Structure formats: structure tokens, C-alpha cells
Amino acid sequence: MAEVTQVERPVKLAANFPEIAIEGVTKKFREGATALENVSFGVEKGEFVSLLGPSGCGKSTLLKLVAGLSSVTEGTVTVNGMTPKNARELVSFIFQDATLLPWRTVERNVGLGLELERVARPTREETVRQMLKVVGLEKVAKRYPRQLSGGMKMRVSIARALVSRPRILLLDEPFAALDEMSRDRMNEELLRLYLEQQWTVMFVTHSVAEAVFLSTRIVILAPHPGRVAHVEEVRLPWPRTEETRMTEEFEHEVGRISRLLRGVKSGEAREVA
Fold first, then answer.
1. What is the pLDDT of residues 37-53, one digit of tens each?
2. 15 in a domain, yes or no?
């Protein structure tokens, strides 16, 4: 098996405090179910952290707590030293469904948030134009969602999230509905944007290969209730391209993380080398 060495992260990290700090977080729902129990970890500025785990382990719930869309029962979540609600201007959330308005063109879908903020039309149009160029969709600005492929719809959704110039990007299985080739292409596009924009990212996925390809670190959650089982550095060099998936190092990392995940599913809590 290939020997894989530690590599530098693509963005220099801040030394003061995590950009996202999750400390002793428990989340209980009104009906009594406990989704998360005593979850603690931090995400440093510039990191790309993926959440992996079986269904029902609270991955999406945790993302919503960070976004301020739900509140903790116990513990604390801070974003750039603030409560999630106070940090909302720093954060954009991308859901699994692109949720585009079918009666609005691509450019008008992307600019919706700016319209609601009453941004002046010339500024709004220029910002939208720049964002569509960033995601490679400037040529389809006048099209409607029904005229787009699944991958294009997700890029519109990403562009819509980017117009607010977020520092932190939260993504909840955004590529789950795509075929494998489209998903791989979107992973490469997302990494390109991540390296350009230098976001801090939390990404929920069920795909080990996707998590390994994208991440600086992977947090594996155990279910019933959701809790941290493993926090693993991804031992792959940067930059990562489509050729990365063909390497022995990539296969080694996917195998290593898969074994950890299988151990979590079977109730084991042992390290896998």
C-alpha cells in the first residue's frame, strides 16, 4: 500500500481562534429525539471540512446550527467569534436542491438576493455579471432554469450564494442528484473557486471519494445520537485535479476513510491506519 505523507493546506490558517467553533453542542428536538450530543470541533479560516457519517447522524442539523437556521439545546456555536445569527452576513448556504425560480432567468435568479437588499440596479447587474463569469455561465444569462442541465443549475445556485461575497460557505449535499461525471466536474469547479476565493467551507456528503477529493479535513459522525467519532486530515497534495483520482495515494485515502466509516457504522471506535 502506498505511503502517504502529510501535506500543507492550500490556505494559511489563522492562529487566533477557529472561524467556526462548535463546543459541547447537543441538539434535541421538541418530540424528544436527540440529533447531536456533545459535539466539539473547530474549523480554521481557509479550511475545507467535510462531514461524513451514516444517515441520521446529524450532519445537516449541524450545518443548520452553524448557519443560524436552528438553535442549540446545549453548548455553543460561534462563527468568527459571533453567534451564528449575528454572523449571517458572512455566511452563504447551498442546499441539495438548487431551488431556482422557474419564471426568472439565470441572471435574475442570481441577482434575487441583491434585489431584496435594494442594491442599485447598475451595481446589481455588474455584480451578477461578474459572478456568472466566475462560474462559467455568462453565455446562458438569459436562459431559464428549464433550459439548463443539472450541473448548470447547481452553478447558478453557487453564483447566487456568491453575490453576497461570503467568507464562509456551507453546502448540504449539493451534488447528490448529479450523475457521476457531472459530480466530478462540479467537484473540480468547486475546488477551483475555493482556492480562488479562499472561503472557509463546511460540506455535507455521503460520498467518501468526494470528501477525500475536496477536503483538508474530514469529520466522521457516529449516529444515534450524532457525535464525533473521528477527525481526519486528508493526506493528499495540492492542487487536486481529475488526475488526482487516478493516483494510488487517492485510492489509499478513500480506503482509509472508508474503513473508519465502516467502523462507525458497525459501532466500533478504533483507529484505522
1. 999 999 999 999 999 99
2. no
